[in-house]
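Researcher: Go.
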Amino acid sequence: MALGVIVFVLLTSLRGIAGFYTDYLWFDSLDFTGVFTGVLGAKVALGAVFSLVFFLVLWVNLLIADRLGPRFRPPGPEEEVIERYHELVGNRAGLVRVVVAAGFGLIAGAGVSSRWNDWILFNNARDFQVVDPLFRTDVGFYVFRLPFLSFLVDWAFASLVIIAVVTAVAHYLNGGIRFQGSAQRVTVQVKAHLSVLLGAMALLRAAGYWLQRYELNFSTDGTVHGATYTDVNAKLHALNLLIVISLAAFVLLLLNIRRRGWVLPGLALGSWALVAVVVGGIYPAFVQRFQVVPAESSKEAPYIRRNIEATRAALGLDQVASKPFAADSELDATALQDNEDTVRNIRLWDPALLLQGYQRLQEVRPQYQILDVDVDRYLLDGELTQIELSARELDTPGVPQDSWEAKHLTYTHGYGAVAAPANSKTADGAPNLVVSDIPVQGAPAINPADEPSIYVGEGLEGYVVVGTTRQEIDFQNEEGTQFTSYDGDDGVGMGSYLRRAAFALRFGDINPLISSSITGNSRILYQRDIKERAQALAPFLSFDADPYVVTLGGRLHYVLDAYTTSASYPYAQRAETGNLSPRSGLDQGFNYIRNSVKAVVDAYDGSVTFYVVDREDPLIAAYQQAFPDLFTDGGEVPDELRAHFRYPEDLFRTQTTMWGRYHIDDADDFYNKIDAWDVAQDPGFGNAAQLSQQINPASGQPVGAAREARIDPYYLLMRLPGDDELSFVMLRPFVPTSPDDSRKELTAFMVASSDPDDYGKLQTFTTGVVPEGPAIVAANMQQNEEVSRLQTLLGDRGSQVIYGNLVLVPIDQSLLYVRPFYVLANTTQIPQLRKVIVSFNGRVVVRDTLRQALEQLFAGAPATLEEDRASPDALPDDAAVPPVGSPPAGDPSAPGSAPGTDDVAGLLAQAGAAFDEAQAALEAGDLGRYQQQVQAGTALVARARELAGPASTTTAMPQVGSA
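Model: Structure:
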């Protein structure tokens, strides 16, 4: 038993050492040892210094307690126990002092190392060049110095309390304190000693009250955050008085050294308790109830103005440009033609649903996975086009061979990417892939053909070893298995048995130590999740929930938006973070934020570059001074990369949530929430039948919970009202605030620019009238007779109708609402874009294509990407064009063919056979055959539906050529 415990402790200790050692090797492999040693040095220094200070102070006091012990201890009931203690200690009193002081010192200092970030900021403090309105002190004091000073004073006070208690126990054991007997209960020497300790505690209490004055700037007790009327006119005075009382207590405790009894200490403590209760508690409550509450709006008005100004500055909302927006009904075919680039890029593929399509069509092999779809813009056929791009990453659990060698030596990386325009589809309603397949092929600007391998990515766990005697599988296709060898800079060399043993301990896997495939040239790659990698390198930054992949120079890169945050900006309101993803790094409370850094990770070699893109942020300047080798100046960002930077979603979510109230300038209007906004209600996304249940049949209006979900921000490639050029922006609409969330009219929308020339520019467009908001428009769409008929028709026989996200598109001074309409066959689970619903000025139209819907509304519209621009109008409405790659029509031997029969049952039987073959092809890894059979089966089902009942208008379009 004892041997087992020893082995367990030894292995645990060795594994901890191995983890520390391999962490250093990892930082060293990326040339970022400065971060490792800097953070470690701060932790060790803080723990050591604070432990040492506590040890010395306690040891000195224990030594004094031993020296002040009476030489003669009168007999009494307690003496027997104390005598046993002295017999046990004997002449080892000095050792006991050291052991006790060291034990308490280690405990007291152990937790201090967690304050390393506060120490680094304290040690690299900067001025904000802005002063708070209450104490006229630079904001930098609050952000950089006050958190560590407050901790220091609190730690010192708590330490003195512990030291005083331990010292009193020592005096008791030495006979200086007695609770029984007729002799003096506390000797003069002991009283003097304890009085000094209590006096030091009084001084620290005074220092704590002094710092609490500044902390009133973060008060949450008033109408808004920051020092409000009661804080300034009651609590501040109470703290000043408590400072005086604490200093007076210090003087009384020092005087008590030469006086008999405990009258002066009792007087000091009693006065402090009285003032703390009456002045510190009762008086502020009295002021709040009888002075503030009866006239709260006028009393709090000056402090509300301070809060508005500070919150805007701290959350990056002080430069928002506000513009009027007429929301008129003047939109016509001429205006659409003038804005053809906006119309051309209206998003019809929702990323969440497109992800499902990518996964079904392009994961290809079980060892691959597609986890996310990222919206960006690229040049396609010479025109700037909104593109939805995904990386095909490695899925280690899906590796066909369940062996250590396969999962760590052979299947080492993902491969390639998938991309499609946001407004384009094939003849059968599938996404029109412009980058696809293995080997990867497609549009040159988006195709990572030069280096398609992905060794680091989203969600990658565990480790792989490259440079072994085993060949790495690059990809598999009809020509067989293709192999590759990693040639990047990432990875830690495994040339020595010490390192191999360390990695075996780190991962709890003996194979890195004993595998004969690992050679002196082998390297191990770990920390391969891009977010975990960036967080490990910059643990003081917070990261956005949604990293995005970019094709640059023929290879893939991931971009992570990194934030500096603080909760210590005077008078600023704490940000509301309830609408952020659980994956967001902004889950902690903060009232200051800047997107100061763009972290760019090479998907092949794992290199990370931290570009500082906000040089005005004092926080990032402090970190740059602390870790000079970590950051790269934003001026060095390649223009090709800068063109793909996006305004971060988590930041925009936070800003729009706060702007709903903080756009108000007047303090009285702010207090009464006059013209306050909320982010518009989310009309929903998903199964049409379920969404229809959210509509009140009597009124035709949406019915939701007391507080409905908010619409997510989304990216648009569009021409903003009044602009001449396309802009890549993020948009989020607002509705008026209402207690029961019943107001659903559009009142404004905010956009954030991602273009290099005006990156980060925030604009609010405020409607002069009150048009219908997204929830109302979505309800009108679902109640439309034609939409309801199509939902019923297309949603039968084993298919689901899916409503996509509602997209608000401002064009000139008018509002256009667009909602895609998908069909999801239960057999394939591949979404098809079947219809497009458009609403303008109360009218709702549903057609096969966006252009057709716009033509119906406006008697004219520009061409859109969803059409074959050569001959979209040459086909009759009921034309049936076989999908590309399907067998010739009338071939009875092919399951995908359509023999000249009008028998619905026969068509459905053939469709079922085609889907069965598609499933078999998918399981065999034959992507081409899989797509062919799915398309054939889908065409047969569509033909059967047409024969079964009234046909909907269906224009079959030839596939837009995908490379």
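Model: The chain has 27 helices and 32 strands.
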